[in-house]
Amino acid sequence: MNKLELISALKNEANISKTDAAHVVQIFFDSMADAMAKGERVEIRGLCSFFVKNYKSYTGRNPKTGEKVTIKPKKLPFFKCGKELKERVDY
Known about the structure:
91 residues; alpha+beta; HU Protein, Chain A; 3-stranded antiparallel sheet; 43% helix; elongated
């Protein structure tokens, strides 16, 4: 399912216009992204949680040249599946 399919499902289920459904979906995604940008955890009970992992700086290698390269510290978003979703998928 992609974003357009989600908007269509919301439109049909809630009996609202496509524009309103698109606005609701955009607000939802923007709110999640803003929370994660602040370092907050986003948890949707029974479905999943999203959180940001912090990685320290480390020394890596350029695979092409073999040269040592310093990798800067970084933050990456992660998704963790909820128990109920796992059970639903693995019926």
